Amino acid sequence: MDQETDLNEAYDAEDFSLDELDDQDLVEQMHDDLYDGLRDEIIEGTEILLGRGWSAEAVLNKALVAGMQIVGVDFRDGILFVPEVLLAANAMKGGMGLLKPLLAESGVEPIGKMVIGTVKGDIHDIGKNLVAMMMEGAGFEVIDIGINVAVEDYFAALEEHKPNILGMSALLTTTMPYMKVVIDEMITRGIRDDYIVLVGGAPLNEEFGEAVGADGYCRDAAQAAELGPELVRQRKIAIGA
Amino acid sequence: MTETIISSLTKEVRIGFEQPFVVIGERINPTGRKILANEMKHGDFSRVEADALAQVAAGAHMLDVNAGIPLADEPAILARAIKLVQSVTDVPLSIDSSIVAALEAGLAVYQGKALVNSVTGEDEQLERVLPLVAKHGAAVVAISNDETGISEDPNVRFEVARKIVERAADHGIASNDVVVDPLVMPIGAVGSAGKQVMHLLRRLREELQVNTTCGASNVSFGLPNRNGVNSAFLTMAIAAGMTSAISNPLHAEVMQAVHAADVIMGNDPNCANWISKYRESAPADAERGRRKRRRRPAG
To answer: Over the stretch A65-96, which tens digit does the pLDDT of each residue have?
Structure first.
């Protein structure tokens, strides 16, 4: 048996064009392709749907965000692993490259916005980057302001981007108390309730999140991508938006 | 040849280029261990004791003790944990905290020559931790990052390590009492992490001639079958020059990788340790074919 037939049997893969699929099948195929981290296929699928007259918003929500939700659930449940989630996020970014200008043009607001950064004194960024990617996968616009972020830099970013969520990360017991410094300063300036504050990082726990006055503690990136949109949704309902 | 001696009251461990690889048990660490964190916070150290005994039984040469619990009195808890561990085992300890006051409290109660874990290349840290290490005549783990972050360029990290070694010398700490941690990033998120570390380990050994250690289990974060990756990583890192690691001795694959690497590096004379660990158990009638050792009469 030559290698090609071998592969075909293994994957049950016959070449087909995404264009041949009807809308429903194509969206499902895109969910699978996101799951498999196939960036080129996601870009192509996005182009096809747009070409068929879909709005950018519909493509984003039905094809990309819905697909990333499946990825998030399987990541949370230990079926998918970090490198696979990074590939899926990268595939989604491919599609987003096409959708972003269209969304901006049509004035469609993202599901939410998040400013995220690792607190002052702490230079660890892998966990924070994972959260940023998962949040983008959930349809958020994420503004990553990097590592070693001082309180004034958090405030500058909040002022500039007006996000729904402020996310803070720390990997050290020495740096995590800085989260309270930022939240206390938000209270002092009377802007605490303008934002949902989420915190995370290896040494943290639920109790610590509560003690510093955050709205939520996220154990991992998958949880952030579930809790973040949920809290934004609740708040929109609460203010009748 | 570079040798770092760490000791308890009764036992000495040598980390060195021509010594068997030193496994520092990682389990006594409440990070990510909710139950342990809660117990330690409320003064229950029974799990700490059990973890200490189990790791030593599994072959750990040293134990790392960490008490990084949010909203708790870390210096006091760390000191208690160290006292307790030293009362139930005789292996030397690594005192693990990013809080200087906790390191100080740990060193104050420690009996022997401890390994202080850790100091980074940040100036403020260096000036606070190194005098403490010098005062207690301890050894120190030097983490190769500074204010600017963890560089993905291993040569930048090498320079940070060199700076720490030089600064330690200014405080009267010899370079063989500085054990450099090259920083192992999760390979699942940073694809080049393995190659970076191997490159850095070679330079640290050949140019800076220092001992090395790392949190070995980091490498497999976010991957399935973590023990498989961890044990391959340890084997390769030992070949590249690593001389100790903070790892989980309760995983048989990990210990087997370390013991085999010792054999291959020529640090297990006559393979004696390997043979004694893995000789198939003798059959029931083991008397046959094996001569009983005769004892010469005393005197």
So the answer is: 999 999 999 999 999 999 999 999 999 999 99
| pTM for the full predicted model | 0.85
Asked if B184 contacts B216 with a C-beta cutoff of 8 angstroms, the reply is yes
Distance between CA atoms of residues A126 and B294, nearest Å: 61
CA distance B58 to chain A (A): 26
Is the dihedral angle over the CA atoms B190, B191, B195, B198 positive or is it negative?
Answer: positive
Joined together, the tokens standing for residue B259 give 């013991």
Question: What average pLDDT does range B54-78 have in this prediction?
Answer: 96
Q: How many CB pairs under 8 A join A and B?
A: 62
CA distance A110 to A129: 19
Neighbour-count burial of A11, counting CB atoms closer than 10 A to its CB (0-12 exposed, 13-18 middle, 19+ buried): exposed
- Cα nearest neighbour of A211 on chain B: B71
In this complex, do B189 and A129 lie within 8 Å of one another by their Cβ atoms?
Answer: yes
- Distinct helix (H) and strand (E) counts, chain B: 10, 10
Pairwise CA distance, residues B275 & B272, whole Å: 5
Reading the block at residue A73, the tokens are: 């659930």
High-pLDDT (> 70) share of chain B, %: 94
Average pLDDT, rounded, for chain A: 92
Query: Which residue from A148, A174, A204 is facing B98, i.e. has the nearest CB?
Result: A174
| Nearest CA among B269, B216, B283, B220 for reference residue B245 | B216
Q: Given an 8 Å threshold on Cβ–Cβ distance, is A208 in contact with B98?
A: no
Identity (one letter) of the amino acid at B65?
A: V
Contact B148 A202 (CB under 8 A): no
Q: Kindly list the structural domains of chain B, giving each domain's residue range(s) and its CATH number in brackets, ordered by start.
A: 3-270 (3.20.20.20)
- By C-alpha distance, which of A116, A108, A136 is closest to A34? A136
Token pair for residue B274?
Answer: 């390997």
Q: How far apart are CA B205 and CA B241, in angstroms?
A: 6
Note the pLDDT tens digit of each residue in B11-39: 999 999 999 999 999 999 999 899 999 99
pLDDT digits (tens, 9 = 90+) for B245-292: 999 999 999 999 999 999 999 999 999 999 999 987 655 555 554 545
Decide if B96 touches A, using CB distance below 8 A.
no
Name the nearest CA neighbour of A91 among A56, A65, A114, A115.
Answer: A65
Pick the residue of B26, B29, B31 with the most A CBs within 10 A to test the interface with A by mutation. B31
Q: How many whole angstroms separate alpha carbon A42 and alpha carbon A153?
A: 35
Look up residue A160 and give its DSSP letter.
H
| Selection from B137, B72, B138 nearest residue B102 by Cα | B72
Q: Are strands B211-212 and B93-96 parallel, antiparallel or unpaired?
A: unpaired
> In this predicted structure, what is the pLDDT of residue A1?
42
- Do residues A46 and A33 lie in contact, with contact meaning Cβ atoms separated by under 8 Å? no
CA-to-CA distance for A47 and A222, rounded, in angstroms?
28
Confidence label for B299 from pLDDT (cuts 50, 70 and 90): very low
